[in-house]
Write a structure and sequence with these properties.
338 residues, Dihydrodipicolinate Reductase, domain 2
């Protein structure tokens, strides 16, 4: 089966989706859509995509598609996802599923009613160290989960450069913690029932970007485990990597420590010192790593008519938790999730 695919939003993440699809022999990328006509043409030419639309609704109407990736900004997922479900097209939506609980609920319901697949791109599940940890848990090596510490942060380049046009329309629990919360709830097998969050606004606010600099949150799960999550995106650009990611997982019979920056490669030039990421890279023009495997999984689910591991329901639970963290930080009080 040749899966015919479209991509809505061909910025940084959308281009990554496109690159991965183009590397799969059982996928034909037939169309892309973006509101920026110059970007649309640039990416379309680079990857040889024939269908190019500034309006995704026109793309869905004119093209015969089996699946679509939605890679628009965090707060702009609802409308294109609903349009895809209305067109009976399977959807891979970038994380977070939404920045509002009601939007996530609407998307999950629409996909269910339409009988199409909705996968949220929690690609971290396909990282090698996540797979190793998941197997150790399932094999009973570590015992029952007790506590998780998960840190995922960015340099200030991300809100002021990479996401400059829309960073004020999202918040760190959605942009970064959605990854770490999904990791922990997936590994620990628990559902968040109570959160307490704090946030501070100083650096970004001083330069006109209305979103907090950092969030820290305690999350209690229904199986008794506790997660301590922190995310910040005002780290200095002089750091050797844009991403800072660390995890400590404690169980009744063991523990797991993960440092994503221990990549076994360090690069120094006359002007910089960097630690290149190795979890997702191009190897002689072919994308390799966790993002590629997540997209491969989505395609296989479409081909074989099976439900994806990272479902719309998973995305909804993460959005509920993230929204509760934001609300707790704003009110200064713990928030219980029903």
């Amino acid at each position: 089966m040749m899966v015919k695919v479209g991509v809505i939003g061909v910025g940084l993440q959308g281009q990554t989706h496109l690159k991965c699809y183009k590397a799969l022999p059982d996928v034909e990328v037939v169309a892309i859509s973006d509101v920026n006509p110059e970007r649309l043409e640039e990416v379309g030419e680079q990857y040889g995509v024939p269908g190019r639309y500034t309006d995704y609704r026109e793309m869905l109407k004119k093209e015969s598609l089996d699946a679509v990736s939605v890679a628009t900004p965090d707060h702009l997922h609802r409308d294109p996802v609903l349009a895809c479900t209305e067109a009976k097209v399977n959807v891979l939506c970038e994380k977070p599923l939404a920045t509002r609980v009601e939007d996530a609920e609407a998307m999950v319901k629409a996909a269910k009613d339409a009988g199409v697949k909705l996968m949220v791109n929690f690609s971290n599940r396909w990282m090698s160290y996540m797979a190793i940890t998941k197997k150790a848990i399932e094999d009973g090596e570590l015992g029952e989960p007790l506590y998780a510490y998960a840190r995922l942060s960015n340099t200030i380049y991300v809100p002021t450069g990479m996401l400059k046009t829309w960073s004020s329309h999202t918040k760190l629990p959605f942009w970064l913690m959605s990854h770490t919360i999904d990791r922990v709830r997936w590994l620990f097998g628990g559902r968040a029932v109570k959160v307490y969050g704090v946030a501070r606004s100083k650096v970004l606010k001083s330069i006109g970007i209305d979103t907090p600099d950092f969030y820290a949150a305690l999350v209690e799960f229904d199986n008794g485990a506790v997660g301590n999550f922190e995310s910040c995106w005002v780290l200095p650009n002089t750091r050797p990597s844009v991403v800072d990611s660390k995890m400590e997982l404690v169980f009744t019979k063991g523990s797991v420590s993960i440092d994503a920056q221990q990549t076994m490669i360090q690069k120094a030039t006359e002007s910089s010192y960097t630690v290149p990421g190795t979890l997702f890279v191009d190897i002689y023009g072919t994308p390799v790593g966790f993002v590629m495997e997540a997209i491969r999984h989505f395609v296989k689910c479409v081909e074989e008519d099976r439900e994806p591991w990272a479902s719309g329901e998973d995305g909804l639970e993460v959005v509920r938790t993230c929204a509760a963290i934001v609300r707790s930080a704003e009110t200064g009080r713990p928030v219980e999730l029903s």
